[in-house]
Specification:
It is built from five helices and no strands. By secondary structure, the chain is mainly alpha-helical.
Length: 123
């Protein structure tokens, strides 16, 4: 339904959880898919090859799968940026071993389940 955001729990505990997971934008009712699609059309000329690839397979997945895929990509991109930042600050070269270590860490990282509110939620 169009107003699915209104059905999200907005108690203090859940609001804190949304912020901690960096998904508090989900509670913004003015943050619609239409707005993202329009913005995406405007930015389509500036897309990276990875983003273009993700756009190409978009029609092959459900909306939920697309959101999970884009979220995972954004998380990985941020994690990699955070990982290489100290190398840049120290003007050190990132070796193949460093990159392999990063991806090994990513592989071992546990996936967070975004769908279940905390057990102490009472609303």
């Amino acid at each position: 339904p169009e107003d699915w955001r209104l059905e999200l729990c907005s108690c203090e505990t859940c609001s804190a959880m949304y912020s901690q997971l960096n998904v508090d934008f989900l509670t913004d009712v003015s943050d619609s898919c239409g707005a993202y699609e329009a913005r995406g059309r405007e930015l389509s000329t500036c897309m990276s090859s990875v983003e273009k690839g993700m756009q190409a397979v978009k029609g092959q997945f459900s909306h939920t799968e697309q959101v999970e895929m884009f979220t995972a990509y954004a998380d990985m991109r941020k994690a990699f940026s955070d990982f290489v930042r100290p190398f840049a600050a120290e003007k050190k070269v990132v070796s193949e071993a460093d990159v392999r270590h990063f991806f090994d860490q990513m592989k071992n990282r546990k996936r967070t389940d975004f769908g279940i509110p905390p057990s102490e939620c009472h609303t």
